[in-house]
Amino acid sequence: MSDLEMAATTELGTHAADTPPAGATPPPKTRSLAADAWYDLRRNWIFWVAAALVVLVILMAVVPGLFSGADPTACNTRRQFAGPSGGAILGYDFQGCDVFSRTVHGARASVLVGLFAVLLTGVIGLVFGMLAGYFGGWLDALLSRVVDVVLGIPLLLAAIVLSKRLAADRQGSGIATVVIVLGILGWTTAARVMRSSVLTARSQDYVAAARMLGAGPLRIMWRHILPNALAPFIVVLTITLGTFIATEATLSFLNIGLRPPAISWGIDIATAGKHVREAAMPLIAPSLFLTLTVLAFIMLGDAIRDAFDPKLRR
Amino acid sequence: MTYQYPSHGQGQGYGQGSGQGQSYGHGYPDSPTAPVVAGWNDDRTGWDTPTAAWSTPPTRARVERPRSGEHLLDVRDLWIEFATRDGVARVVNGVSFHVDPGETLAILGESGSGKSVTAQAVLGILDTPPAVVRSGQALFSGEDLLTMTPERRRQVRGQEIAMVFQDALSALNPVYPVGWQITEALRSRRGVSKAEARRRAVEMMDLVQIPAAAQRIDDYPHQFSGGMRQRVMIAMALAMRPKVLIADEPTTALDVTVQAQIMDLLATLRAELEMALILITHDLGVVADVADRITVMYAGRVVEHADVHTLYGAPAHPYTRGLLASVPRLERRGQGLHSISGTPPNPVAIPAGCAFHPRCPYAQQMCRMTEPTLLRIGRLDRASACHFPPEALDARHA
């Protein structure tokens, strides 16, 4: 094919792309930002892998019986560190509990803690960051100092005090306590990232253009600044989700997080770590699931961020 | 590229019924030295045959308008300062201008001359602080924009006065399709339904001559070329049919060939929609064919205003003369390019006396001492803030 022919084909090709033949596609409806993002996500394999993992973990959290029929609390020290058998495919741990069953059942606590703590963090961080960044002035100064103060509080120390205080009022697994502790102490990074993105976005010409057309502060914040400031925020939140699940493990290990009747990856990792020389599987199984879960959420966050940026669309 | 100025006519249809022989000076004070800072009247001209083709400039015809004494937009003695670390920056110092429906006013000046700040103040999108509007009025249909309630202000914005920004890429929100953006205000403020908004978006895109509008309505700003993006910006500004359109350097970010098309489009739209157009620019070339009147700003002051023919044909102020001389011209081929020596003054430390004196080839002792007022020149519709009448400058130059 000669260069000329190539050029002609390219020309035709682009032209055809510009004006799709009538009848090939139904007249497109106005797509919202979310609909466009969804259209993009559907064609992203990373999204599907991440989504499958997330769905799997959530299924484990909701109906653990689907994956393992064994009772995770039916332990017998006579089976300590016993190898895999018909009933327990990953063997038994220090207490003689079924490792696979405990790992499956541990998803619930970890996922609940992670998701709810991140939700709380996200809401607080979004509101603080948006208000501080958009209005600026004394409000920004005030909110930024609050962030500094919270950031200055040592997490573990505050968690000990807070969980003792909160746990005195309630009996149970302690999931709510951990969520509140993590949420109250962990939102500062998200708020700071949000504030700086809002500061960048609010000085853009499109915000001035929206004001020029008479848009009010709420519309400007919600419709114009938020979509443009969301990407780094989402990334921070997905990373925070991972660290929260890990922090839950730390808190549980220190006996200020979830309490033993509850089953969590954090508790199991903490106990199994001490006996890793005797048996590795009780440590590997929950760690692997923890890693995969965190990875899945981070990948999901990445894919969502990219989908909301029209410039990265293919 | 050479620009052809209206005063150089050259058989392009200019000069018919323009400038010469009209009776100016209605209502002017008898004294030839009376300041005409506010309430400067004139006879307006307008396009009567809108056309999109650059090669055939529309003929100018005089349009008689009743003199009601009230202008559509009348900015009077506006003073704006910025509080900066180095001190108070006096950015706008007593600026006055006005526009009426169907007319184009060009505000000309270098960067930092206060022209964009003036426009932002009129529109109420100036960030205060750091900016402070010290005094002045911006009357829209007799209502002062600077003192009205924020709620009323928001009503006026977009619906009555709208603005086209310099860089359309940054003025369009990157995450929304252009059709969504063009009609956002219609949907949120006029309650237009989604289907209706879609129809209107196509209509607006057709109006600003974007080809295949119906197919491109869901495209994002970055998928458009610079000129098309500026057209989208114009469509967005015009969606609510404002009476005044302020275009802040609308062609600065564009290629020279596209500049002409955008200017032409603005002129056509102004005529079709019978609106007042304020063109803010630093480029003498782009406004020559479009503007009816020109206000020249320097260091936050109006130094000269005149109708376009007079200004290009017989500039009165030394600054305007310098600007005109520095435009490259084909007939001066081979000669060096002229430039105005020196740099624009720092708004924190504007020179005493005439702000232009350090750069002015005609400067005398009095220019360093006394600030000249904007004075009407002769019987023509023009005014200049220079101690010396144009004839005196001509004599010095010769």
Automatic annotation (TrEMBL), chain A:
Residue intervals passing through the bilayer: 45-70, 111-136, 142-162, 174-194, 229-254, 283-304
Topology relative to the membrane: Multi-pass membrane protein
Domain ABC transmembrane type-1: start-end pairs: 107-301
Organism listed in the record: Asanoa iriomotensis
Region (Disordered): 8-29
Pfam family, any one: OppC_N
Domain of life (superkingdom): Bacteria
Name of the molecule in the record: ABC transporter permease
Automatic annotation (TrEMBL), chain B:
GO molecular function: ATP binding
Entry-linked PROSITE patterns: ABC_TRANSPORTER_1, ABC_TRANSPORTER_2
Compositionally biased spans, kind Gly residues: 10-24
Main location: membrane
Superkingdom as given in the UniProt entry: Bacteria
The keyword ATP-binding appears for this protein: yes
Domain ABC transporter: 73-324
Keywords: ATP-binding, Cell membrane, Membrane, Nucleotide-binding, Transport
Keyword Membrane: yes
Topology in membrane: Peripheral membrane protein
Subcellular location: Cell membrane
One matching Pfam family: ABC_tran
Renumbered residue ranges of the record's region Disordered: 1-33
NCBIfam families: oligo_HPY
Family stated for the protein in its record: Belongs to the ABC transporter superfamily.
Protein name: ABC transporter ATP-binding protein
